[in-house]
Amino acid sequence: MDTIHVSRRGFLQASGGLFLVASVGEVFAADEPKFGVDGMPHGWVDNPLVFVAIAPDGMVTITCHRAEMGQGVRTGVPLIIADELEADWSKVRVVQAEGDELKYGNQDTDGSRTTRHWFAPLRRCGAAGRQMLEGAAAARWGVPVSEVKAANHVVTHTSGKTLGYGELAEDAAKQPVPKAAELKLKDPKDFRYIGKGKIPIVDGFDITTGRAMYAQDIVLPDMLYAVVARSPVYGGTIASFDAAEAMKVPGVVKVIEIKQTPVPSAFQPLAGVAVIADNTWAAMQGRKALKISWNDGPNGSYSSDTYRAGLEASAAKPGKEVRTHGDVGKAMSTAAKTLKADYYVPHLAQASMEPPAATARVKDGKCVVWTCAQSPEAARNDVAKRLDMKRDDVTVNVTLLGGGFGRKSKADFAVEAALCAKETDGKPVKVVWTREDDLHHSYYHTVS
What we know:
By secondary structure, the chain is α/β, with parallel strands linked by helices. It is built from 14 helices and 16 strands. 29% of the residues lie in helices and 19% in strands.
């Protein structure tokens, strides 16, 4: 089992022998909004020509369109497809999809929904690929498709003749993609990989040996590094700033202002000042040397203690009765012993092990981003909007995520990187959030 940390586009450019991915073909997307998979933006896609590529040597490349943040999705997604495809797992490798929901369907890796929502479409994807291989073999031999069967990377005729997947890939790509009603899904008792617990995490070796590439690990030629001094209060703005001392720090090359997004800002960058340098340490020291005067705005007087007191006072008042069953008041009054406890949950940051990070390069009217995005399509759209670019001029490459918990589905750090890169004459810029940045400027879970 091989794992490649490159974009699908880069992989296709480097490999001249991929045939099953010859065309995107028809995509099966949801017709009407419903709960579950059909209710996701951009719905689902179950076309093997989108997710599966087979090389002449039989190597099967499966694209994972969801983000890996420790939950094993880069194993689960290809495993489901491979099982129905009847692929030999030792001849399967995984590539990561860039952000493109028009092609791959919904890519928002939130809410523990990937397997729940995508299990059926991914099974159909694998089954369709298997039947296309069987159809190609039947056509090659001039026999009814009912006389051939795909199993473990080989299609066999009742006579005993065999053809490997690599030999059939080019012809299989020309086969019509079966409609859902025409698919023959496996009986679950015949699953080879699903539910067996025998397939190791595809990124396990790289993770445990330090080879895995997270957003914080991205290094590109001529790359610059940036940290941002952000408004200490949500919705605050910059009254003034002086970058003179910051520019004296060795290694600092530029200081730029990041304009405030009007409140409510959704998940766009707060007002801030970015210090761009040729190394992270210089950027951090330059930020310390900044002189900034902030306008805190309407949230400047917010106090979590005051808010808590208000919540507790409200919770102590009689509630609205919406359903009655029994008489709890009477039961409490006659109980031999009663217990009372108050529970309070404060504002909580997601605090994933890897703080947010993003690298961007803006050159020739296009922007390329490398980031730990749970929702790469959101990052793509937000960057395009903020840079006044077309969606097609923005590419978002997804790295491994060192945890996410929903925080990394918000693309503010990717937008910050793009804004910095716009000011550096084509040089890539990596915006690094420190642990303190992450805790101070998270999108907190609410008090309860």
